[in-house]
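Regression test attached.
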Amino acid sequence: MPPVPDNPDRTKVARAQEKEPGVSNFIRHIIETDLASGKFAARRWAGRPGPASVQRDAPPDPARIRTRFPPEPNGYLHIGHAKSICLNFGLALDYGGACHLRFDDTNPEKEEQEYVDSIIAAVKWLGFDWGPQLYYASDYFDFMYEAAEQLISAGHAYVDEQSADEIRGGRGTLTEPGIDSPWRNRPPEESLARLREMRDGRHADGSMVLRARIDMGSPNINMRDPVLYRVRTATHHRTGDKWCIYPMYTYAHPIEDALENITHSLCTLEFEDQRPFYDWLLEKLADGGLLLKPLPQQIEFARLNLTYVVLSKRKLIQLVDEGHCGGWDDPRMPTLAGARRRGYTAEGFRLFADRIGVSKAESWIEYSVLEDCMRDDLNARAERRIAVLDPIKLIIDNYPEGQQEECYPPNHPQKPELGKRAIPFTRELWIERDDFAETPPKGYFRLFPGNSVRLRYGYVVKCTHCEKDANGNVLAVHCEYLPETKSGTPGAERVKVKGNIHWVSAPHSHAGEVRLYDRLFRVARPGREGDFLQDLNPDSIRLITAQLEPALKDAKPEQRFQFERHGYFCADSRDSRPGDPVFNSTVTLRDSWAAGAKT
Ligand code: ATP
Ligand code: MG
């Protein structure tokens, strides 16, 4: 689908009509109140401090909202990030605003260009466009440093020469206040001199830090003189060796938001206790003339918790590094790269985000809710094809050897405009092994000696007998066809049968690799009891050789299909070769994990 532009003409009403109903939530309520009160109309864009790039991209109409998606480039994006992306970009779109993509790259050690590239690819793939608004926190390092000096001069920060342990020890607990550092009341000139020495590489890692000077007695531990800058002799993926001091996330993030004129800064609930510091910092910088009001507002929402996966970068990195999967884009991984390779769709993710909504209450979403979204999207769009996953021969003894005719399955039963294709019908076919039973269980309507079924889009056949090896394994099934029953010909439906099975012509089909995926974890909450690695599902992948109809030979990487009676499948983007696609199972037609199917 085409990228969604930052288009102010697309009104909220227009987009709301495209969506499922019931989309209002507490964040929309805040935004609508702010827009109605004209809060941002008072903004003065001209002459704002901050990076030239942000100045240049300031919108002509300052009354619009601005959101941002601020990943740290220290891993690939996961399904939880999709919620945040759809929320931030979706709101900007709905209210005619803009959403920035900003790399929060303040931590030099763990960040890499590979992650930056993968994040850009994933957000684009989800269908969102940030226009010219692509930013890096590291672009603001100069400003952040300048702001730090100003805070010191105004008496709002100091350089603390205690060790990390001493600082931790002095911070107090939830029930006890902290204790002032012996460096807390040193003269600003002294702190300034130390900070400059830190910047110039004259102090070792961990020897001193810059701290805000707020309130060691605050009931909120985050307000007890939090650390703003630390010495870290490390090469940054963008600024190289220019810096050996780096800002803390809690200091950097509010400044990034303010410099980019973000109006509503949406984050997950664990940052709720940081909000007083967020506001304190921006107020102090505005008082000092470095920032202009109105300042951005931080709003927290509940993060996505999804059963049967882990959504923590640390754990995902462990899965990759320790080889528990085939890499970040392994189709079993809950990364967006993995989901894409598996065959999940961007539209399915956006539908998921709409369905789960946003709230302040922590909750768990069943994985099957995501699968249902993918099914609903794929059902509407994926063309149908025929694949026999566990093949056994069916021989039609009264069909002449060497004869061939065409049958015409529709490419999509609800979309006649997608047309039909021809598939060859011959004397020898492949059918699914479990579509035959020598001794049928109760209620079995498929092939067994004496019973008739319809071969989809072809003829009705009556089973006569089967061939077996010495061990009793069935080698082939024999039947006879009824010539007057070909689908689509007059009178074809006169013979009534209960079973309807799929098939491919043995001389025309080709054997292809199919990867059947199951969930990566076998329990709903991996790691709830002990190490999450213990909960890995040992049977999460099964490789099979299927018999595929001729049209599937030409499947392009990432092309998705419904294999009739099975589910949705996607041609693998890495391992498919021209004329020899490899297929990944995306999702079954029905939920095989529902109600006791597996535990
Ligand atoms: P992790 O905890 O896995 O390391 P993170 O939150 O540290 O993830 P970031 O790169 O900082 O990773 O995340 C970018 C944005 O995505 C943040 O605004 C964060 O709040 C949001 N986000 C991350 N995980 C989730 C989630 N499970 N549900 C909703 N939003 C999330
Ligand atoms: Mg984070």
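Expected vs. actual: identical. Residues 307-342+514-599 form a domain with the Ribosomal Protein L25; Chain P fold (CATH 2.40.240.10).
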